Amino acid sequence: MRFETLSDWLDWQGTLHPAEIELGLERISKVYQQLASEKPGYVVITVAGTNGKGSCVAFLEAILTTAGYRVGAYTSPHLVHYNERIRLNANDVDDQSLCEAFERVDQARGDTSITYFEFGTLAALDIFNHAELDVVILETGMGGRLDAVNIIDADVALITSIGVDHTDWLGTDRETIALEKAGIMRTGKPAIYGDLDPTLSLLKYADKNNVPLSLVARDFHYGWSDKDWSWCDFETKYEHMARPFMAGEYQLQNAAAALAVLTKLPEHISVNRENIEKGLQKATLAGRFQIVKEEPCWILDVAHNPHAAEVLAENLSANSCAGKTHAVFGMLNDKDVTGVVEKMQDVIDNWHVCSLDVPRGIKAEELAKAIHQDKVTLHDSVRDACQSIVPDLNKNDRVIVFGSFYTVSDVMQNLYYN
């Protein structure tokens, strides 16, 4: 074996390819053909979108495992441990299994250069192919058409809400970006589109390619009250269901799309209302309006684009606090900083802007230029920002950590709020 530890494998993978991101399927398809000699027998659900992908994967995984099915799930990025990206039956894969899969990928690739994300995607597929699974859920990392997971044909495709993000690779408007996401759909295979504002480009793509597409508010519907929620399509109706454990009305939109997916699975994969309600109560997702401490309240949210920031602001407004709201804010340089700040400025009292010490991290001085408020403090790191806040917090105050997976991950790993 080339390396014995997971950390050594991951460090090496980061140096293997000249570009951090290189969209395209030719190289990874070539390697996968060496890894898998025949098509696996499990059902594949592929999930793409700008926001809500992780939540939908978590809902589907929890419901299907609750129903007794053997489920594999692949997501990215991770927050604390790389193992979070690959799960078997709702458990993170262990280091040894990852190392063995990495070795098989390394042997299969020969002299083909692949990216860090492609290496991990191939390892995930290899692990799934060696397990006896009923369903595999694949989350795209970016886009869809040229994303590494798209080398596998989806039996059911799910496209969540679409916003403007990853503009250097996917385009600068929703219509163009949606067309990239649409690439996970397959002719004759069912697809779900969970966006309340559907894009014309995706609808035309589905029609042109004979994709049986189900739309929210047309083919399936959902509603809610403070205590419960309901879902229906033309054949099934669930009323007065317990709301999902994950908070926020936007999570009902994600849950509704996940339920629509379940109705399109092959007949041998079926769930009932009890499976659904138990699964929705069991499903959690780190870093999505995650409250990690009370009095003072600390909330972690990976919101890093305007649409996600808008949802976060709505959640903060719906869950007001008696004290001040402090932000620990760090972002990457390929994100829409101005758009995110505009969505959040009315719900933040004090901004603590921090530099991120990663290749695409924005320096605090640059980030602060987008914030047109008086109470803005600059910090060299997430650690410095958090440690400067803690001594002066009132028990009725709250801190929202957001702007990037890196920002949230730093706090999750180091527990600066304790």
Account of the 3D structure:
It is a single chain. It is built from 15 helices and 17 strands. It has helices at residues 6-16, 26-35, 53-66, 95-109, 116-130, 167-170, 174-181, 200-208, 249-263, 273-282, 306-318, 337-344, 364-368, 382-389, 405-414; strands spanning 43-48, 71-74, 86-88, 91-92, 135-139, 156-159, 191-193, 213-215, 220-224, 228-233, 237-242, 290-293, 297-300, 325-329, 350-354, 376-379, 398-402. The strands form three sheets. An eight-stranded mixed β-sheet has the order 4-3-2-5-1-6-7-8, sandwiched between helices. The chain is globular.
Structure at a glance:
The protein is 37% helix and 18% strand. With 418 residues, the protein is α/β, with parallel strands linked by helices.
Write the layout of secondary structure elements.
Layout: H1 6-16, H2 26-35, E1 43-48, H3 53-66, E2 71-74, E3 86-88, E4 91-92, H4 95-109, H5 116-130, E5 135-139, E6 156-159, H6 167-170, H7 174-181, E7 191-193, H8 200-208, E8 213-215, E9 220-224, E10 228-233, E11 237-242, H9 249-263, H10 273-282, E12 290-293, E13 297-300, H11 306-318, E14 325-329, H12 337-344, E15 350-354, H13 364-368, E16 376-379, H14 382-389, E17 398-402, H15 405-414
Parallel strand pairs: 1-5, 1-6, 2-5, 6-7, 7-8, 13-17, 14-15, 14-17, 15-16
Antiparallel strand pairs: 2-3, 3-4, 9-10, 10-11, 12-13
Spans of at least 5 consecutive residues with low confidence:
none
Can you give the mean pLDDT?
A: 94
Total beta strands: 17
Biggest sheet layout: 8 strands, mixed
- Can you tell me the overall shape? globular
Instruction: Order the strands across the largest sheet as they lie in space.
Output: 4-3-2-5-1-6-7-8
Treating each run of at least 4 consecutive H or I residues as one helix, how many helices?
A: 15
CATH H-tier superfamily of the largest domain: Mur-like, catalytic domain
Head-to-tail CA distance between termini: 41 Å
Q: Indicate the CATH architecture of the largest domain.
A: 3-Layer(aba) Sandwich
Structural class by secondary-structure content? alpha/beta
User: How many separate structural domains?
Assistant: 2
Radius of gyration: 21 Å
CATH class of the largest domain: Alpha Beta
Q: What percentage of amino acids are in beta strands?
A: 15-25%
Portion in helices: 25-40%
What do we call the CATH topology of the largest domain?
A: UDP-N-acetylmuramoyl-L-alanine:D-glutamate ligase
